[in-house]
Write a structure and sequence with these properties.
The chain is an alpha+beta fold. It contains two helices and five strands; from the N terminus they run βββαββα.
Length: 152
């Protein structure tokens, strides 16, 4: 993986699935950066906070409460939107005295906001995210219907 200069990049999802990390299963999403290399994002599942962050990012990428657990089946599942262009915020992170470049944020440019391992399938490790996704979807603000809009 080539090192990128920190900044914002346009990218599309190339592939995704579940991989085994040092702290257990994690979601891996490989992005193809426009006019650049591919770059991977890892969604951790080890803690409730990790799951919350991973769920939020997977929903930005197209998952919903009814299908988020199918991400582990990879691109064939069609859960994540591989046609959409996302904005990746790349930042440097220092860990154990070494500087690493990582995807800090995944943004959907169409939504207003405030900011090499083998894939595993069929483990059921993402079932816990369904409840998390449903709770997040239920608490999201609803958009008013056109006839409810107030004209000025």
């Amino acid at each position: 993986m080539s090192k990128l200069v920190p900044g914002k990049y346009e990218a599309k999802i190339l592939e995704y699935g579940l991989v085994e990390g040092a702290r257990g299963p994690q979601v891996k999403v490989v992005f193809g950066i426009k006019n650049g290399p591919s770059y991977s994002w890892f969604g951790q599942l080890a803690t409730e906070k990790n799951q919350e962050i991973t769920t939020k990012n997977l929903m930005i990428m197209g998952a919903n409460p009814s299908n988020i657990d199918k991400v582990e089946n990879g691109a064939a599942s069609g859960v994540l939107d591989q046609n959409k262009v996302f904005e990746l915020v790349i930042e440097d992170r220092v860990y154990n005295g070494k500087t690493y470049t990582e995807i800090k944020y995944i943004n959907d440019p169409s939504t207003p906001r405030t900011p090499a391992q083998e894939f595993k399938k069929g483990t059921g490790a993402l079932v816990a995210l369904k409840g998390q996704a449903a709770a997040m979807a239920a608490s999201a603000p609803k958009q008013a219907a056109k006839e409810d809009d107030i004209s000025f």
